[in-house]
Structure of Adenylate kinase:
Amino acid sequence: MNLLIMGLPGAGKGTQAAKIVEQFDVAHISTGDMFRAAIANQTELGLLAKSYMDGGNLVPDEVTNGIVKERLGQDDIKERGFLLDGYPRTIDQAYALDQNLADLGIALDGVINIEIDPAKLQERLSGRIIHKETGETFHKVFNPPAGDYNEDDYYQREDDKPESVARRLEVNIAQGQPIIDHYRAKGLVHDIDGDQDIELVFATIEKVLNNLK
């Protein structure tokens, strides 16, 4: 079974990806893992990617796409299938993935799309606060400090501030929607309600994947 998993930041994509990999024994492929492996193995593309990263630059799409193709061509993928996580990030990468899968003779079986209202994700992602003295992490709504706490004793990381979260969600929606539309036109997208208990989300995904087998 060959799958993509998609979802906005905070939608629980990482949690569900781990459950899918465990239950269905497919290879979990993330761009971070692929880059680290290619660099460690000193492949030509890995060394090229490292040269960009060492210079503080973004790795060009053609290098990223090549590293993905290298990974998809390995023997374990033929035996187990894969779950691609965090790729493609742009519609151009999606087109490249289509071509690379065709070159390798691999068919994509489905795209798991975890959906949550962006307003709820905004609340979820921008509520994290950190105690200045202890470094302990809390959430204003879901895991607040005990009692009447003094907000001056806590701080937020820049990434957790509401304006940063809103910007990150906007970018992800703008990049992700064309990809979902692309695969929806191919009849591959399975929308999953992510605004429920983690186990219920996975039960829905499991039902979809069992029907794909």
